[in-house]
Amino acid sequence: MGTGLYKWYGWFCRWAGQTLSLMGVAAPMHAEPESDWRGVLGRRGEDEAAAYLRQQGYRIVARRARVLRGDIDIVAVDGRTVVFVEVRSRSDTSHGHPAETVGYRKQRRIAELATAYIRRHRLQDCHVRIDVVTVTFAAEAGSSPVVEHFRNAFDSPI
């Protein structure tokens, strides 16, 4: 399928879902793309990271800011610095630390998205930083997640 067909299909499914709900049919046409456990884990991680950053005095400007063909997890302001935050979540560290998942390709992608955001919002004169916040959820229910904050996690590769 081409990208235009995917857009049409997405529109059709939203329209059909609304039409069915107006008719009293509650069953969705298709599963939401983030209804899997990874999507839930990611959203929980972003919620924890945003709460942590607020606690540290950051002002959250945007969450899941859509830019180009991607999104920036959190855009925040720390004093006079605009901070782009990549949030990485894991249910445990048996397969490595969450920060290890931010390799060169991911760094480059984050930098591209941040640059596009800066251009779109005309923030060229602002100080900018890219941070990574990792959230590791414990296996035991009820225990609080471990949040780690890596300020200025990497220099922009672009």
Order of helices and strands: HHEEEHEE
CATH classification, class level of the largest domain: Alpha Beta
For the largest sheet, list the strands in their spatial order.
1-2-3-4-5
Give the class from helix and strand content and strand pairing: alpha+beta
Please report the number of helical segments. 3
Distance between the termini: 32 Å
What is the alpha-carbon Rg in Å? 18 Å
- Give the overall silhouette: globular
Low-confidence stretches: 19-31
User: Per CATH, which architecture of the largest domain?
Assistant: 3-Layer(aba) Sandwich
- Quaternary structure of the protein: single chain
Mean pLDDT: 81
- In percent, how helical is the residue content? 25-40%
Sheet with the most strands, sense and barrel status: 5 strands, mixed
The total strand number stands at 5
Q: Per DSSP, what share of the residues sits in E-state strands of 2 or more residues?
A: 25-35%
